Structures are given as C-alpha cells and as structure tokens.
Amino acid sequence: MTLERISAEEALAALDRYSDVIDARSEGEYAEDHLPGALNWPSLHDEERKVVGTKYKQISQFEAKKLGAALVAKNIAEHIQRDVLDKPREWQPLLYCWRGGKRSGSLALVLDQIGFRVTLVDGGYKAFRAALLADLPQLAARLQYRVICGPTGSGKTRLLQALAAEGAQVLDLEALANHRSSVLGAIPGVQQPSQKAFDSGIWSALRGFDPARPVYVESESKKVGNVAVPDGLIAAMRASPCLQIELAEDERVALLLEDYAFFVQDIEHFCERLGALTEARGKAVVQDWQARAQGGDVASVVRELLTLHYDPGYARSMERNFSQYPKATALRAADRSKQTLAGLAQAILREEKTP
Predict the structure, then answer these.
(1) What's 35's domain CATH number?
(2) What is the rounded distance in angstroms from the CA atom of residue 218 to the CA atom of residue 229?
(3) 202 touches 176 (CB < 8 A)
(4) Do residue 211 and residue 239 come from a single domain?
(5) Which of 119, 95, 113 is nearest to 43 (CA)?
(6) CA-to-CA distance for 139 and 132, rounded, in angstroms?
(7) I need a labelling partner for 172 at 20 to 30 A (CA). Which of 81, 242, 285, 303 fits?
(8) Do 157 and 249 share a structural domain?
C-alpha cells in the first residue's frame, strides 16, 4: 500500500473525515498543543527524548539514532498491542509529529504494512500551527456575533450558559482560557492553556458554528489571564452588536460571592490577589480591604471592588473598544437566579427569530 501525504491546510479542512488523528510527539509536546481531537501515541516519551538528545549532542549522532530506533520500535509495538489490535480494516488514521516526519513516519510505516490506509501531515505540527493561524482571521470574519456586555458580576457568563442551554451558538472564551478575565480571575488549582492551545480551542469552536446564526460571546478584553484573544476575532467582536445585561448591585455582590466562593474559603489567597491591585488603588486602600476580608467582611470588599475598581474601568474600556456599545440593547435581570437568566436567554432567542 502507499502512504498518502497531505498539506496542513488540507488536513485542517478534512479533520472530521479520519477515524482518528494521531499525534506521535511526546507527552510534553502534546500537552502544549495538538490538533483538535488528536490522540497522543508518543514514538518517544519525554524522558526518552531527553536521553536520545543528550547522546546526540555529547556522544554521536549514530549512537543516538540507534538508541532512538530501539525506543521508537518498542513504543510503536506497545501502541499496536494496546490501541490497534481491535481496529477494523476500514480504520483510517491521520498522523503527524513535530516537523520532519520521522516519528510519525515510523508509526505510519508499520500501520501501512498492516494494511490500514494511513495519511501523514506534511510538515507536521509546525505546518499545522502556521495553517491554523492563517485560517483563524477568515474563520472569525465569516461569523456574526452578539456581544454580551455588563459590568463585573452582572451575570454575563451565566447568561452565556443559559443561551447555550437553549441551543444558541456560544463562544465561551473564559472557559477555553480557564480564567475569569480579571486580576482576580485566576482559578485556584486550574492551569491556563498555552497560547497555542487557546488558539486551537478557539479555531475548533469557530469551525463548528453555522454562519447563518449568530454566535454569542462575552465582552472580553484582549487578554484573558495570560492568553490573548486572536486579533481577527477580537476585531470582529468589537465591531458587533451588543446586549447589555443590567443587575442590581446587591445581586451582583451576591453573585460574585457565589461564583468566587474559593476566595471566601481561602482568605489568604484572596488577600494575596488583592495585593496585585496596590499600584492601581493605593497601598492604604488595599491594606484596608485585606484587613476587612481577614475579619470576615468579604461582602463589603467585593462591593468596593465593583464601585471603585471594576465598574469605572469597564465603562471606559467598553466605550473605547466596542463601537456599537452606545447602542446596546438593555437586558434587565430582576435577580441572579437560573430561572431569570433562562428567561432572558429565551427572550433573546425569540427576538433573534423575529424578522
């Protein structure tokens, strides 16, 4: 049989056609980023790569290649035994590694000899990454967006979740970024994805949307924690119609205490994060907030964070960056309850269907 090779651009356009997408790189390379839905079948594991690389530099290329070949053969045998014996003849995998194709090529050769129809990505992950970055702006531009706006604690994320539950197309950038998009937005114990993985997650989400229907997205800033929203997407969002959710201040404070319950449970962590606001708010203000939080009065600290820090900055940012924000449709929420937000979502979607 003959191995088929395709370009990264062709692979992007046809990912769904393959039975499985196989990433033959090491666990660490895979963790940083990979093709959407790819399985990790390392031809060399992380530690093995280090050992072979050291031998390559310190002893000789020939000795390193012999060791590498032995390790790759052992690992491929394990993949065949564990993952391939139950595959039917019709199974058609797409394979790639970093760039040169040696690791994926070795696996592809064995699978091809078994009798499977195997396809390799020319240029590997490196070519895929370049193709994805080139495709993202076009993918973002073909969609129509509705931007959910509102000050911190007004329930934007909850409304997005309610819209998704009603069948709307939703792009949840904070979920993709594992971050709540503010100086206090880091989620304890949850690591953010790499920029590459964030880009891939966005690309994967965008390609699944129907251009004939709007995509609902929150009014994020350019950065969501340590990762940046791709330029083409943020530009499209900032030019799109806005929906402004309005919620009473008491309800906003209560909502934040619910959604950021980990701060109440770990006051020291909360006070540590408050310290990041010292330059913006001043040492005396931040120390007062920390003292009150340690005394159990987290609610008053949250209220002042809203009125003194978040609200003024949010209003300025929206007016500066979102061109249709002055014409935003008002969405008045009576409270923060799931039922109220579900009702708002239903009203939004009814309006969407009205000619």
Answers:
(1) 3.40.250.10
(2) 12
(3) yes
(4) yes
(5) 95
(6) 10
(7) 303
(8) yes
| Low pLDDT (below 50) residues in the chain | none
Whether 270 is in a domain gets the answer yes
* pLDDT tens-digit series, residues 150-209: 999 999 999 999 999 999 999 999 999 999 987 788 888 899 999 999 999 999 999 999
Residues classed as catalytic: 97
Same domain, 269 and 190: yes
pLDDT score for 265: 87
On whether both 57 and 177 belong to a single domain, the answer is: no
Hey, is 151 helix, strand or coil? coil
Residue 28: give the domain boundaries: 4-132
Same domain, 58 and 150: no
Predicted TM-score (pTM) above 0.90: yes
Answer yes or no: do 342 and 226 share one domain: yes
HEC assignment per residue over 286-334: HHHHHHHHHCCCHHHHHHHHHHHHHHHHHHHHHHHHCCCHHHCEEEECC
> 170 and 92: one domain?
no
DSSP letter for 179, please.
Answer: B
20, 35 in Cβ contact below 8 A?
Answer: no
Cα atoms found within 13 Å of the Cα of residue 143, Cβ hemisphere only: 29
CA distance 180 to 82: 39
Q: Exposure of 98 by Cβ count < 10 A (0-12 exposed, 13-18 middle, 19+ buried)?
A: middle
Question: What is the spatial distance between Cα 120 and Cα 316, in angstroms, rounded to a whole number?
Answer: 49
